[in-house]
Amino acid sequence: MDTLIGQGLVALEMIVDPGSFQRDRVGAKEFTDESYGPGAVVGTATLDGQTVTVIASDAEAFNEKFPVVYAGIIGMEEGYKMASAVYATLAADVDKPAAQKRPLVLIVDTPGNGPGKVEEIFGMNKATGAYQLALAEARMAGHPIVAAVVGRAISGAFLCHGLQADRIVALDAKFGTMIHVMPLTSVSRIIKKNIEVLEELSKSNPVFAAGPQFFYQLGGVEALVPEIEGLRGAVIEQVAALRAAKAKGEATGPVGRAALGAARGGRVTRPQVAARMTAEFAAVADKYRPHA
Amino acid sequence: MALNTLEFDCKAEAASVRLAAPVHYGVVGSGDLEVILEPCDLGGGVKVKVTTPISGFDAVWRKVVETFVNRARLADVAIDINDNNASPAVVSMRLQQALAETAA
Amino acid sequence: MKAERQWNTLERDTAQRMEAAARFIGPGKQVKVEDVVPLLEAVVRPGDKVNVEGNNQKQADFLAEALCKVDPAKIHDLHMVQSSVPLAAHLDVFEKGIAKKLDFAFGGPQSGRVAKFIREGKLELGAIHTYLELFGRYCLDLTPRVSLICAYEADREGNLYTGFNTEDTPVIVEATKFRKGIVIAQVNKIVDKLPRVDIPADWIDAVVQSPKPFFIEPLFTRDPGLVTERHILLAMMCLKGIYGEYGVKRINHGIGFLTSAIELLLPTYGEELGLKGKTCTQMVLNPHPTMIPAIESGWVEAIYCFGGELGMEDYVRARSDVFFTGPDGSLRSNRALAQTAGHYALDMFIGSTLQIDQYGNSSTATANRVAGFGGAPNMGCDAKGRRHSTDSWLKCGREVPSMNELIGDMPRGKRLVVQGMETFGEGRAPAFVDRLDAWKLAENAKLDLPPVMIYGDDVTHLVTEEGIAYLNRCANLDTRMAAIRAVAGYTEIGLRAKPEETKRLRDDGIVKTPEDLGIDPDTATRDRLAARNMRDLVDWSGGLYNPPARFRNW
Amino acid sequence: MPNWSKLQTRSFLESSARERALGLVDEGTFTELAGPFDRMSSPHLVALGEAVEFDDGVVTGVGRIGKRPVFVISQEGRFIGGAVGEVGGAKMVTTIDLAVAFAEELRAANPKIAADELPLVAISFETGGVRLHESNAGLLAHAEVMDAFQRARGKVPVVALIGSRIGCFGGMGFVAAATDVIVMSEFGRLGLTGPEVIEEEMGKDEFDASNRALVYRTTGGRHKYIMGDCNFLVDDRVAAFRAQVAELCRLPVADFEQFRRIGSAALVEKQMRLVALAAEMQPKDAYDVWRRAGNNDPAGLGDAPVDDFRKQAQRLSV
Fold this sequence. Notes:
The complex is a heterotetramer.
Chain B: E1 4-10, E2 23-26, E3 32-39, E4 46-52, H1 58-72, E5 77-84, H2 88-103
Parallel strand pairs in B: 4-5
Antiparallel strand pairs in B: 1-4, 2-3, 3-5
Helix pairs in contact in B: 1-2
Chain C: H1 9-21, E1 30-31, H2 36-43, E2 49-52, H3 61-68, E3 78-84, H4 88-95, E4 99-106, H5 111-120, E5 124-128, H6 131-138, E6 146-154, E7 160-161, H7 169-177, E8 182-190, E9 206-209, H8 229-246, E10 250-253, H9 257-272, E11 282-284, H10 292-296, E12 302-304, H11 313-317, H12 335-344, E13 348-351, E14 355-357, E15 362-363, H13 376-379, H14 391-398, H15 403-407, E16 416-420, E17 432-433, H16 437-444, E18 461-464, E19 467-470, H17 477-486, H18 492-495, H19 499-507, E20 511-512, H20 534-540
Parallel strand pairs in C: 1-9, 2-3, 2-6, 3-4, 4-5, 6-8, 8-9, 10-11, 10-13, 11-12, 13-16, 14-17, 16-18
Antiparallel strand pairs in C: 6-7, 14-15, 18-19, 19-20
Helix pairs in contact in C: 1-2, 3-4, 8-9
Chain D: H1 4-9, H2 17-24, E1 31-33, H3 43-48, E2 58-65, E3 68-75, H4 86-109, E4 120-125, H5 135-152, E5 158-162, H6 171-177, E6 181-185, H7 195-202, H8 212-219, H9 221-227, E7 232-234, H10 238-248, H11 265-281, H12 286-292, H13 298-303, H14 306-312
Parallel strand pairs in D: 3-4, 4-5, 5-6, 6-7
Antiparallel strand pairs in D: 1-2, 2-3
């Protein structure tokens, strides 16, 4: 097997305990309408014995109602369906202590969001926004969330399905794994810079080049998985590590990755900006207190 | 491909106007620029720094800024410009507007 | 006994052609869409002079495309005589070998292809004209044998309504029909009754209802949102240093953001200067949307239009004291008359240019585009045949020191011809150059003359952000060149200005900087504009102005 | 410093990011954080030889409206279309973090502190989303802002202001959707995909990007108001946006939940009903939806002065 692109469901089965995946059921919620957001696959499985919610994209599905949604694209229905699955997960464990909240596993292989007229008229931006907020809420409630990038993690689609996870692992680039906003050729065209120059520059500066290795340097993914067979292990390992990290109150998710970006030398300006602003505000904070 | 930085010093003929406080003006839109004017002890002179993606206009930059400094009779000022291909007419105008901000 | 000469060969030839075409022409002169190409093949003959109506606004686009579809084996070597060539079809006829020669006035979007075709020998250029010049030649040596025109509506007899966009139609039809030519019209709609008759049916030979309404370009709409502070500074200088200084009443505004800025400043800065009633009272102008605030504020008594402007129909109809409207209430815009007024009855023309040389000659031509002239040169010149006087015309003439060298002590006025632009244009291209690109174009496109829009001796005032050069006050070419340098800013020409020389010119009132004019550039802000966006224009018009979709940002 | 009173009368559309920030809060109260004198511009643009801005195109700071500390983020569309990179993104995130930390600190010091003495965040959006010159860093910054919003939930209200030239698109379209309240002018636009990309995807016959009237009635302030995607439609003046924020400043943070479109299971249920309507209607044009909402003359309503529009417009409910 040389790639998992377009095979999100295969990847899903590889990662969770064999035969454990129950599609369309999360906690008490059942997703009964098969035609609703067919590209969004949600359900419950076990991972190394513990119950997990799984969210993935089905590249084979085509949304009859919204023709710009196919090949794993996250459209309006898909975004809200994924968000619902997260809320159903929250509801399922609402009474459990943080340490016992079930993990969410996001299998990431999505080429984008629905770029259509109806989507704009009805506000596609809300659907993906809703999913991100739901994931952030679940993460903060204690659910460990691990995203496994197995294929395409493109721009806005990665933002909603991936980047709100506690931890992200990505399959090595040799399997065709794609993480980017835009391929470098398109970047080159739009910002009017020579492609060779950009390729050369990307060796020393990971901020605009396409590929999981560059996101790794920026702290955008926690770990690269060298072989397909290692995916399951990597996800199990991250879940375990997360339980410990969360218990200790360590930063995970986007905040954790920002720190990682600085530590790996990929995003070093970010902490400087934050430190400067924090110091500047501290100097004037009294002016903004009551009765000042 | 790196950004060009152009630095030079100049001195107004009847340098006498000093700034009370630093000022920032402008937006680096296409064909536009931003400028910071800051008081700075330079023995009555003016220090200029221009950061721009465009090269080959050094003489014009110098002429435009010198004309401004002379007209305004500026002394002891550091001028720091971020440019994005502003025409000399726009440069003159923004410098003048920045100075007017200090008076406002 | 001398041989009997036939004195009506044209008439007989026309009759023959029409006989061949008869089977395509039904009652009311109507032709079916699918019969238009065979109709053209029946009435057009190789070598004919053919006019396809179109200018920078409305276009007989359906007929232009039909002409491209005739069989070049049957119809070839046509000599196109037409105002403009903005549509691809206008040049396709040359590509296909249907047409050979072109006489025109305005290139528009196809001007690059015109230059290319000339170079490649696909197109033989007669001349580039002004509108009025070409209309004149329609009545002498370039009379069309067949004209393909456009109108809004026809009735069941073939009468035409050209209405709001009358434009070139009357002059084309008159020149063609009264020399026994053939006139074919495309109309948007065939109706029982026209709002008014603009062209009588017996001047028309065939009418076709085109599948789509004719194309029309809102060329004179400027979004106030795009007026910059630099435009405003220049506009303030113009209003104070020229409009006010000379009290100019009868004006044409060339299209551009400078003139839009002037229009939008009339109700604000113009009012502050006390110029209302003293300037801009009569204008030859398309219905510029940016004129709405000034019209609403009571500045303008009359406007005669070259053509219409999309979206201004209802507004113009509701302001019949200002615009020339028919008994039906809609505008009639006869370009030939507007150009005549523009040539003879104006006191001032103001416009912008891409390039101006050290002598003051200006051109919008670039090295590889035959852009043409349109109407600007007829307005941007002193009409030598003018014999009536106005105060501003006399004042401008009085200030010309060299007038007596030609006509002794005889008093004579001069039209104000104002060129206003920033010293650097788009992409930092200098507006002042040693040699106009027009020279390169003349070479590249094998033209007899570099296409000069306005000659230096006609320009009376030059306005840049550096100041106004009152070129009419210069005694000789040396002084003119010095005055031009003085306002050329940081261009290479401007850098040659000598400070002491510039000071002398300022002392003599030949050059005035914003400071000399009492204008603080820092006050040239967008707050001064009477309307700052398209929405404001709609509001000023009380909802009568209906901007085209591409200008609506709400 | 621009004259504050004069700023109030200015068009919001035409105001720069800094003018919007200054004009939004009370006169003389704005302190800029990481302002131009700090010269924190993007190192990535320098590497590419692109023009830089001292503030990286985002103005951040803190001011007051009445007693309430208002943390402001204001994006500058004239600088690379307001696109977000590493520095600008960090400025956004840190501003929200500072507001949340300040709220916690004030509450800890005085548990009975009045609602209108606690911080609020106002974001003036003008952006197409990720800055391609540093796209990876820009994308990651988007995720951080989203995360910061969730951390601010129930602690500090976040208000979006959209009425600038570029509108608010791309990843920042998600971000704006996730705020508590959205205030727009008729000139504002909010969405995900820009018009050119839709045209590319669907063809010019379906969506002509040069038709601005179409573009605006698909993503513009009036349309978003009818759809319920923006809560308040205000006049295009700095003072009008300020007045709306000042009004909101009187509310305790809990009251902001009522304005939200997304952010809970119940809200997602509601949005799903809206999507069902989209599927059922398959509208060719936004005006079809206006009609469905009970507006019989959408074209007339779209063209009416904004005051009349506010009075007459029927908003869609599902």
